Amino acid sequence: MKESMCSRWHLRLIVLLILFFPLTLSAAQGRVTVKGQSITLRQAIKIIESSSNFKFFFNPSDLDALPGKNLDCEGEISDVLKEVFAGSGISYVIMGDDIILKLEKKAASTQQKKVEIVGGVVDARSGESVVGATVRVKDVNSGVITDMDGKFTIKATPGDVLVISYIGYETKEVKVVNGKVLLVELVEDAKQLEEVVVTAYGSGQKKASMVGSVQAIRPAELQVPSASLSNSFAGRLAGVIAVQRTGQPGADGSDFYIRGISTMNGATNPLIILDGVEISSGDLDNLDPEIIDGFSILKDATATAMYGTRGANGVMIITTKSGRNIDKPIINFRVEGQITSPTSKPKFVDGATYMDLFNESLLNGGSTESPYSAEEIAGTRAGLNPYAYPNVNWYDELFKDQAFNQNFNVNIRGGGKRVDYFSSVTVNHETGMIKNRSKDFFSYNNNINVMRYSFQNNINAYLGKDSRLSLRLNVQLRKTKQPNISMNDLFAGAINTSPVEAPVYFPDDGVTTHIKWGVNDRLKPGQQQNPVAQLASGYQDNFRSTVVAALEFEQKLNFITEGLRFKALASFKNWSSTTNSASAGWNKYHLQDFSVDDNGVYSFVTRLQNESGGEVSTDLKPGVANSGDRRFYFQAIMDYNRTFGKHDVNAMFIYNQDELVTQLFSGDLIAALPKRKQGVAARLSYAYDGKYLAEVNMGYNGSENFAKGHRWGFFPSIAVGYNISEEAFFEPLKNVFSNMKIRASWGLVGNDNIGGARFVYMPTINLTGTGYTTGLDGDITYKGPVYSRYGNPEVTWEVGKKVNVGLDLQLFNSLNLTMDYFHETRTDIFQERGTIPQYLGTAGTKVFGNLAAMKNQGFDFAADFNKKIGKDWFISFKGTFTYAHNEITKYDESPKYAFQSKVGQSANIPSIMISDGLFKDPDDVKNSNQQIGGNLSAGDIKYVNISKLYGYDDDIVDISDWVWAKNPTVPEIVYGFGPSIRWKNLDFSFFFQGVAKVSLVMSDFHPFGDNSLRNVLTWIADDRWSPDNQNINATYPRLTRDTSVNNTQRSDYWLRNAAFIKLKNAEIGYTYKNMRFYVSGMNLATFSPFKHWDPEQGGGNGLKYPTQRVFNFGFQMTINNNR
């Protein structure tokens, strides 16, 4: 034992020498030269600063009385400084590129007056600067905050004691010595074990004593170049499945789920709490990471059970920053400019190729006609005239390749003993990729233009030693201008409109008073479209506001018993939206004839093609729509937290009530009724000697959505933990395993947002319908009122039973690992019955009940590595992995074939037919089972007779021959990883994010059909089956004029693996004093087996608003005059 203690003492001595020795001998920065006659120390300092990267920090009065001297020195910085300051009474400390001067004790004044103390604060383990540490004189309330380099300057009297503190570290006291330069090393607080994590109802729990599955993320990790906060989640938060389906400004937030999907009909999104108030995912997206102080994900029942009805799908807890008791306010400023471009762009064939392919499609169908003559094709290919021979790339007519966005934030933080404050303003401007075609015809710009303003104001008033009153106000304003046509319809128009049937518009004939928009006369008037005309003929302005105000009072009740505390929160949230629109009619024309004179001048005869037969008004007609809601919430908490020797006890009791009122401007009285919830919750936790941990939680909640007798639900949970590393026998292993904790939990959670209309225990009756049908053959109809929904008074909560087992591990004081296995069984899932025969008279009537069940299981993993290498390098690495697989275990259904039952399948999984390549020749068609549709030929898709394979007597392949695909359309695996590297003032980071076990189904892209004469994508033209390319594994089957029922079925022929890995983010920055310059990017590269568009956008034809590649240029500055 004595030898062990001796070795440990030597180890500490070596660590101290490593930490301190480089401070005076670490100047290997190149050679420095100082030469001159009678050079003062200030002049010498300027020479060194101007010829190197070194900067000096000193008290000017220390150098004023010192004489100049002759200098002729050259060499390493340590050698030069030694000669410059020889005999001056000034000593120095080198910290990287910074040199701090100090007045030696023998030269210091003996007068007891305040002097400036210069110093720095670092992590004792890593040597990393501690930014934001509080430095104050003991028994004095005000103080200063360390800057971005961990340095500080404070005025104090020799003999005073400085108190240095920071969350997660042991508070340290250092005595002031006049002229002494301080290097303060903070040691991690073993009791706090890195950090305090915000958990249920805003209560902070020490990470060491937590037994629930909770992940906290540093707000800095959420700072990515995106206006939507949720786009930073994927791959960074273990346990969170997140996918971004669109890049549309103002609507590009990700869909996200905590530990996947556990229900099929009700709400799947997690509960989101901002400063104690429930907010929507849209509100979350508008938050600026600059205002966030804490961000936690509650994943298991122990963490979420206290929320009862609202916590079934996990909880996100966000707290915003508060002020600080400092001398002068700290001001932070950030400005960014972004260039955005689509991550993918569809490629279409040119007009002449389209004509050739269209003729080919008719020949494939047995026709001898060629609608497009060789003359027309040649004229189009030669581009003779854009009106006589149109060749329109509608995508290029509608969309541009780049947009420019701006972000701005300024925040201020300060306060005193009685009041502190934090205030932030964010302005975000986004523009879309839509070309401003309206300016060519009208006086408005209907490109997407989104202006967002976000305000956060937090005030804490300390009414006494034990009382605090806080007001937190979050205001979000958004103004959006965009076309009247939806983005889905606009992008669909780019593919659904023929490139050769009409120009965008015909030239002005000098007679017509309106624009003559071109349309396709091969289609019926109701099917004709011109996406540019639809884009240009109207716009809408939307203004929406969200105000979240929370007033919180906290009173410590130590006069009753030590550790007792009371908190009350009252909040109000108001959301409103107003849309003003203007729309105009547009006149459709097609080319009836044209002629060309001897000079090559074209003349056109056009014909009006409106459905009405006459002209329509092009005057803008206004419209308005309003919506909104408001929420009132109240909670009261009694909290007890106390330590008795080795026993830590915490107890909490909560009462809460919530009311949501939807403002409707229609006659739906049921929907306008307030939605109310009420409940109580409690927690009791116990820890012995920091080793043995236990926690019990419960929520007892009521919802007005159910009938009496079913409105209240009880949701308990229990968890235990074991800090093995705190045991004495573990001591020899601590050099490797710095910390090890195992934990396990079980609990019930509820969900009252079960889908369907409200008050499903009450029936609804249709008085205006046609009656109901009954009879074995469904041929008897009775007139009169009919139930549109039968009431079910037994309907109640969805209930999830959650189990979690986790391991927290720290290796070598540098690598933190968290691993969790989870399993949930969700029962009483709300579902419409599928097994009631319609001859009972239920045709058209819905019957609901708690009929279905699911299970969801998987694991998530997080790794976080931090290491200082030498004095100039710091490296960190972060990685996460999440796997969540769900399976339906019970479902009320009556499938045609047993193998088509949903039981045993995942939610969000597509049904598909199974193909066997393409028909090789007519004999192959003849010798195969009867297929879907008629007139099958070589080059058509051949389907497998699935029902016969499963033993059913069926020789016909029809739309009933389908199976479930292997993978769902929501990924089951999400992962991310990437390093962050800093060398001196230069920093660099990148982050990869990927998904796996996910599929997409391609659809709505088949050429020519669907009554639209749809355009042809180049990948179809390049590898289609044709008489010249009789490849039975071709990418696309033979072309046909009308959409082939056979070839367009949802099948594995159109099923694709949507897995990908992206270079999601990269950033390089440089810090100079209190300023930082940086360049960053998002969605920089995608690697996937699917090549046609960004697979993250999901299925379809890729014609939707694409996700954006972002290049971001930023500048950040902090003004901190407390140094």
UniProtKB/TrEMBL annotation:
PROSITE patterns: TONB_DEPENDENT_REC_3. One of its GO terms (cellular component) is cell outer membrane. Keywords: Cell outer membrane, Membrane, Receptor, Transmembrane, Transmembrane beta strand, Transport. It is a multi-pass membrane protein. InterPro entries: CarboxyPept-like_regulatory, Plug_dom, Plug_dom_sf, TonB-dep_OMP_SusC/RagA, TonB-dep_OMP_SusC/RagA_CS, TonB-dep_rcpt-like. Residues 207-315 form the TonB-dependent receptor plug domain. It is found in: Cell outer membrane. Its main location: membrane. Belongs to the TonB-dependent receptor family. NCBIfam families: OMP_RagA_SusC (TIGR04056), SusC_RagA_signa (TIGR04057). This is TonB-dependent receptor plug. It comes from Bacteroides caccae.
